[in-house]
Amino acid sequence: MKLYGNLLVLCALQTTNAFFTQAPARVTFSRLDAAKNAAVAELKNANEMFDSAPTVKVEGNTLRTCSFDTSVERVQVCLRTSGRPLTANVELWQGPDNNPQKIEVYLEDGADRPFCTIIETPSGTNSIAIRNTGAHEFPLSACIDLSKPEAGQSSDSPIAALSADSAPRLVQGGAVYTTPFAPSVASVLVVLKTDGRPMNSRVELLQGPNNKKQVMELYSEDGNLRPFFAVIETPGTGNVVRLVNTATVEYPLSAIVEPFTIEPGYDEEGFMGGNMEWSAV
Question: What is the pTM of this model?
Fold first, then answer.
């Protein structure tokens, strides 16, 4: 109970408007149009999260939880290490033995490529559980930021805005798709959702043939009510995002995978081939 209480205290210290902040100066927003920028341009990246919000250390083989009331519409969760590998499970709890969303995370280097996601938390009281599945020698740092709308208002969902303005790719059950990104791309936006059916998928960041730098195994009980949203850091060259729909053919999903930020000094012409194209494998 003492371990769990520490994170609850940290969550309580966060302000209601801490979920949004100014865009980082080190990068400029890339191919996102004005409507998308209005929804997501002010989201914190992982470094800003850890600089501005309370952080808790999660030792290997340790579970930490954070509970919040019905006023919280979504939470932003970030995980990182000091440069060591990271393996962890992030789960949304809603009632006894009810886990409507789960994410298994692997990072080869938790400093260069921290994990950062947004989890929708509708319908009652929710909890976020973070379990470090690594050995005792591989602790991680976790940060959770809560999004609360003003009284009588409903905050706009970045996921909903992106889904409305983009032309997502339909990924059938069992299909594998990849898309490469130029060295100018500093981070990649990934949004996955379904029409209300369950979602099972795997998202991988590759750098070279089968060199997996980041892997996320996803499950959502309702891919429309609780879609997946993440910004993946892509330092270096030769970055490729591979998406695998691990469900059967009866459970397709819609995917948005596109550059999110670019390094200073680049413009739209700096992208590989101009427009990103999906490739079937």
Answer: 0.79
